[in-house]
Fold this protein.
Amino acid sequence: MNATVGALLDEEGNLAILPTAARAVREVKGADWATYAPIAGTPEFLRAAIHDLLGSEPDLEQTAIAVATPGGSGALRHAIANFLEPGQALLTTSWFWGPYQTLCDESDRKLESFEMFDEDGGLDVEALDAMVGRQIDRQKRALVCINDPCHNPTGYSMTDDEWRAVVECIAARSAQAPVTLLVDCAYFLYAAGDPRAFLRHLRPLVGRAPILFAWSASKSFTHYGLRVGALIACVGDSRERKQIGSALAYSCRGTWANCNRGGLVAITRLLDDSDMARACDLERAELRSLLHARVEAFNRLGRGRGLRHRRYEGGFFVTVFTPQAREKSAAMRAHGVYVVPQSGHAGDGALRVALCSVALRDVATLVDALSV
C-alpha cells in the first residue's frame, strides 16, 4: 500500500484523469505545441487563470496581474526570488511541503517557520504575528506563505476566523514594513465546501499589502506532467502593479524563458469554453467525492484507534503525529505499507499519509498499520 504518491489515484490504483481535460490536450493543434509561447504566457491564458481564481471577487480581480509558470512550483519560485532579497527568509508554517526549502536554497534565500498549531489545535496566529515582527526587525520585510485550503502535509483547512486573524496580522504589520502574503492554493478545488470562500477575507489587504497566489492546473485538471501554472499578484497601486509584472516577466526570461504553449492553449480552452468547463466540474466532483469518502472513512476509523491528527476535511494528505516517526515508518514498510516520516519544530514526529493514493477499501488496513 503506497500512501506516499502525491497524485490522485482511482480505486484500481491508476492515475485519475479528467476525460475532458485529456480530450482538450489531444485536440491542441500541432502548431500550438511547436510554437513558442510569449515569455509571460499567452494573454488568453493569463486572463482565464485570473478569472478562474478571482472571478467571484471583483475587488481582487481588477487589481490582478499574472505570469505563466511551470506548475505551482514555478509560481512559488518567482515569488521567493522577487519578493525577498538574497539571504532573506521566507516565512511559513512549521509543517510544510519539503520543496519550499529547496526553492529557497536554490535561490539563495532561507526558510523560517512559526509554530503552526496552538494548544487547541487551531492555527497559531499569535506565533505568526510574533515571527513576522522578528523578520521585520531583522530583514525589513516579510513574505508569508500560507498553504490553504487542504494544507500539504497536514490536511488542515483554515476557518473563517483564522483567515480574518491572519489578514488582520498582515495588514497591521504592513504598516511597519513591506509584507506580502503568498497563498499556495494548489489543492483548493478539493476542499470541502466552497473552495473560493477564503478569498473574501483577503479584501482588506487590497492596497495595503500585495497578495500572491501560486495557482496550478496540475491537480485541478489532473495533468501533472503538463506543467501549467501561474503566479497571480493582486496589487492595489497601478504603477507598482506594472513594475511587478515587468519583474516577473524578466524572471521568466531568465529561468525557463517561456512555458509550454500547447499546455497553455489546452488549459485556456478548459477554462473559457463553458461546455468543457462544466464537464470538468462534473468530472472533478466525482473525484472529489471519491477522495472525501476516503477522508470520512479515515476520520471515522482513526477516532476509534486514537490517531492524532488535526482537523481533516479534504485534500490529498493528512499528517498523523507519532513519536519516533522514522522507526514507525520503517516498521510499516516491513509490512508493505508506505508513508513519509516527518519532523516539526521541536523534533516532534509525524507521518504524512497520502489518502489520495489509497483505495477506499484499503483505508481500514492503513489505519490499523498506523495504530500499531
In short: DSSP finds 14 helices and ten strands in the chain.
